[in-house]
Fold:
Amino acid sequence: MATPVTLIAGDGIGPNITDATVRVLEAAGADVEWDRQAAGAGAVPTHGDPMPDATLDSIRRTRVALKGPLETPVGEGFRSVNVALRKSFDLYANVRPAHVIMRGGKFDKVDIVLVRENTEGLYIGIEHYVRIGDDPRAVAESLAVITRFGSQRVIRYAFEYAVAHGRRKVTLVHKANILKYSQGLFLEVGREIAKEYAGRVEFEEQIIDAMAMKLVLYPERFDVIVTTNLFGDILSDLISGLVGGLGLAPGANIGASAAIFEAVHGTAPDIAGKGVANPGALILAACLMLDHLGDRDRANRIREALEATIQEGRVLTRDLGGTASTQEFADAVIARL
Ligand code: NAD
Structure:
């Protein structure tokens, strides 16, 4: 029976790259049944809300979503789309695989999967000012909250990912030398969990500042990386920069009750409506979704077709130096399938 998947086309370049991605998946014979739902700025005129309840209900039912980029409308009364999704589905792990597809550069051997904790740390939003005398903003405080439970589930996810994907090493990135309590707890949990995987997955610890240097000098030494929210936010962009930027960077948001797959990039307002966006990142995100659904062979077949199309260099979108449209690129991938 076909697996139901919530499909959110999104805003800007979203509908165009989503169409291309759906065509590629259908050409590959993926056994999914799309439940099309609205979200983002495009949903406001029809639903009065950038994250309509019907869309959340659909994800609750299917537990899997493929999502185009969303613009969160600015204005009072509108909820932030990403916050609504993260909260509703407790999306605790943000997973970003990165490797070079267009070879011939300095970072050809990079093949890294970054697992970022997505719900805790400095991003929990507990912040306040302290008044001193007549200055209401004399001091600002932001609380970083790390829990044993939150650390355990994301670190275990990283190790399980390593086992499931035949990866050799997990590197835990921290700043426990200075932030002895919050970062110290994350590291302590990492060391405990690593023992369960001894002999199967190698474990390594790196301090964030040294890690930033090492990722630039010899990124090929790293495999799976797990880290807290803020460090993960920064390192994931650093890593996508190493492998050629946004056009080919997919991401997965894994939660206790659902998983949402998307491109790392946004709605690209500067090229929206022109039909020239690179659908590669969303196609690769759809491959992560097929992996998640247990359809690894089909996901690998699509990845191989996409990589071969790019490496051949005949049909490329503008961001990769070509002249092809979004749909022409998708057609070239489909022809290879
Ligand atoms: P962006 O990622 O949309 O664009 C940055 C640059 O990369 C632009 O020059 C754009 O043309 C280019 N680019 C992005 N994707 C591309 C693609 N597939 N092919 C070719 N070129 C591509 O970032 P931004 O301009 O900062 O954000 C625009 C909007 O997207 C904002 O409203 C932001 O909130 C939203 N956004 C949403 C998500 C999401 O839904 N997950 C993520 C990031 C940004």
